[in-house]
Amino acid sequence: MKRSFSLLPLVVAAIFPFISVQACGPFFSEDVFVRKLSADSPDDFLGGKLGVLLPTYNRADLTFAYRYLNGGALSPEEQKPFQSAKSSDQPASGLSVKGANNSGNPTYYNEPEGPADLWLGARDRYAPPQSEIHPVKQYNVVYRAGFFLAGQYENCQADAFRTAVTTLESRARAWGPHSSELADWIKAQDSVFSNCGGAGDAHFPPEGKPAVHPSQPSDAPVNAPLLLRQDRAYQQAAAQFYAAQFAASRASFQNVAKDTSSPWHGIARYLVARTLIREAFLSAKKDDSQEGMADFNPDLMKQAQRNLETMRGENPQGISLHAIQQMLNLVRLRTEPLARLHEISSALAGSKPDPDYKQDLEDLNWYLNNKLDSTAIRADFGGEEFGGRSLPDFNNAFNEVADLSSSSTLIDWLITFQSPSELAKKHAFVEWQRRRANLPWLVAALTKASADDSQLPALLEDAKKVNPSSPAWTTITYHRLRLLIDSGHAADARRELESDFPHVQATGSESALNLFTGLRMRTAPTLDAGLVDAPRKILERSSEQQAALDECFNVMQDPRRKYDCKEDRSPVEFSRDAVDIFNNALPLGDLARAAQSKALPVTLSQSIAMMTWVRAVLLKSEKVAAQMFPLLPQKLQLQAGPGIGFHPQMAILRNPGLRPFLDPGVQRSASYDFVESFADNWWCGDWSSGYSEKNAPRPAESVAFLSPAMRDAGEKETAALLALGGAEEYLGSQILDYARNHPSDPDIPETLYLTLRMIRYGCYHASSEVDANKQNDRVASIAREIGSLMRGRYPRDPWTKKAAPYVWPSKKNG
Question: What is the DSSP letter of 558?
């Protein structure tokens, strides 16, 4: 019999009335250079090539890794159930572990394909065709608060259909394929399976059971063969079970079990326990909360446990001890969770193969995800570093799961490794010092260590002893070199990196190679040496900048639409750590040197040139603007002309992809003259948001070639740029001033129109903030003044007519 009890987890959807929500979208994320949620290659990972382990990996992957770190390996049989899946840097990615619930979200049950069809195919050879069967039972329950839960569970599982097929073939041989006995048996079995699916009532009855309308097989004829009568007793009990008539089903199965001559008496005893388990789940009070897990009636569950334990000691015929043990394991995970978790962890982490590895892993993940993922145990994966939670939140959560952590070393390590709390760091150091030869805790301590830790020398000494053949080597070496750099030993780290790179490349992990390349960039003694390692292989393109480029190409399918977008799928782009240096640490002069360097691919050096030119125009540096001018796209050169005044500003207005900063990943400058659809045009006043504080750039990491004077100058220039405000506010003010003082300039009407277009398609229109925001008030004032100026001074100009829809843009969200 199948071990898993598929009532769990329930598929839940909550709908709250009287709340109107307008969704905005689509939603984008940064292009991916390091996969944070799972390994690059599931097959390599399963084989022990772990790359650089990250705390953000899902728990299933970290459990695989722990086996290798702990001195064991996954046997071929243990690896077999985990199919390769294309890795994606979304919360549900990772190795394909059915039921492992890797993302922390409920596992959604869809109707399983295959077993029911096998049954229908078999029965249709002996009887008129039967309509389809739905193995999944659905129901709704409405709560007093006004929302409802839509639930479903796999009522008739695969083994039920397989058993029916086997029995059908056996009875056809015994009675004959055209016998009345076989026809009667098939009719009864159809009645059994008619109770499998369908929808229950919209409300649960008071006792908490879904309303059902059962179909019960009729009694066998009095003169029927004994085997048919014994089959019928079993079929009637099964029909009651699927119809959720648990007390009646239990009594019927008990009667079958008493008939020692029945072929079903052994399995009937097992199914008595199954009725108790199913009833324990479906009869629980629906307002009870068991920390995200499905409610159950503890008395019924413990009664099922006693029955299964008795059966396990008696070895009944008709049901395997393994099936009994698996069902008992399911029950004990509810009734004795810590003891069962200890057993599971020992099997998963041990050096010996676990014959139930897949099921044990599913059980561990199910339990931990339901217990932990609503708490501040691991960081979220949104734009903020900790998903809006504070370090005290993580400390409190780490303290609150102390009992769970103490249930096994594996669980302790999983929780500690994933928690960003200070308490987790202290605990990792304590366990590393207590178990100096233990790789899992050395990995945890190194991952959390910083350059100012007093234990750093001993930690680095232990790390250096790890052999390149160890599955932990890549992770340990990465953090050891990171800590060397952070503690002021960049030259030593660079020498080691040169010899380590072949070992890193041999792992086949693209994420690991990008991480090590980032370390080598930080050790670069010169700007040119740093530029060599600034580009990294882009692993997944998921940014709005890539979407803008794709949209531009799509629009250009119309031959009347011409833009300067270039089809350049460069395999490398600038990752976030390199972008931080360009945006926040390099002054104009050094940015100009970077743009002119031959160390970069042409497309990336031009992106730096365009960004540096915009900065020079905004900061009024004629020298740097002149240096960058020849490096700009020809179309932009023709629009801007030399200098830093009105016409360069007009060129920026024409080209919404120009901005004073680089993007991580695909550059917006790749589609610089295209107005994209989701307001990623020009720049916002808080273009450094998503960093440590609003309008406060995140400091670039320490880099060997970056002198204190250079960093200081770069940070001051970035602060000056941020002080100018967003494009609408700064350029709008500049254009208005010029228009007031140069009324006869023939380009004024077009420039005023372009300013209104910028306000319409830039940050102002997309902002979710209300007009109480002072910057928005200033932008609205600029728009009104431009509209008044165009109507009053240029009433017949074509640009005034074209600008009419933009004079007072309506604010919308989403």
Answer: S
Residue 146: its pLDDT value, please?
Answer: 46
Looking from the CA of 588 toward its CB, the CA atoms found within 13 Å total 22
pLDDT in tens, 527-572: 999 999 999 999 999 999 999 999 999 999 998 999 999 776 779 9
> Kind and range of the H or E element at 448?
helix 439-448
Give Cα separations from 676 to 240, 293, 550, 565 (angstroms).
60, 44, 10, 12
**Pairing between strand 136-142 and 148-154?**
antiparallel
Range 286-303 average pLDDT: 72
Output the DSSP codes for 589-634. HHHHHHHH-TTS-HHHHHHHHHHHHHHHHHHT-HHHHHHHGGGS-H
- Segment 392-445, tens digit of pLDDT: 889 999 999 999 999 999 999 999 999 999 999 999 999 999 988 899 999 999
Number of DSSP helices (H) and strands (E) in the chain, helices first: 36, 5
133 token code pair: 């069967």
Q: What is the pLDDT of residues 630-675, one digit of tens each?
A: 999 999 999 999 999 999 999 999 999 999 999 999 999 999 999 9
**Residue 105 in this model has a pLDDT that exceeds 80:** no
How many other CB atoms sit within 10 Å of the CB of residue 179? 16
| Number of other CB atoms surrounding residue 175 within 10 Å | 18
Q: How many CB atoms lie within 10 A of CB 388?
A: 10
CA distances to 36, 498, 518, 579 from 31, in Å: 12, 27, 16, 13
Directed axis angle between helix 774-793 and helix 727-741, to 10°?
30
- Long-range Cβ pairs for the range 398-404 (8 Å, 24+): 398/423, 398/424, 398/427, 399/423, 400/375, 401/371, 401/372, 401/375, 401/377, 403/338, 404/338, 404/341, 404/371, 404/372
Tell which residue, 530, 675, 662, has the closest CA to residue 609: 662
| Percent of residues, the chain, with pLDDT higher than 70 | 83
**In the block, which residue shows the tokens 């709908």?**
15
Are the C-beta atoms of residues 635 and 673 closer than 8 Å to each other? yes
Whose structure tokens read 């159950």? 296
By the 8 A CB rule, do 628 and 619 touch?
Answer: no
Altogether, the residues listed in the chain come to a count of: 814
- The model's confidence at residue 804, banded by pLDDT at 50, 70 and 90, is confident
> What gap in Å lies between CA 493 and CA 481, rounded to an integer?
6
Residue with tokens 């991952």: 447
The pTM of the full predicted model, rounded to 2 decimals, is 0.85
CA distance 596 to 613: 12
**How does DSSP assign 46-114, residue by residue?**
HTT---S--TTS-HHHHHHHHHHHTT----HHHHTTSB-----SSTT-SSB-TT--TTSSPPPPPPPSS
Q: What angle do CA 170, 172, 177 make, to 5 degrees?
A: 165
Burial of 496 (0-12, 13-18, 19+ CB in 10 A): middle
Return mean pLDDT, the chain.
85
Q: Could you read off the pLDDT of 133-150 as tens digits, one per residue? A: 888 887 655 444 444 555
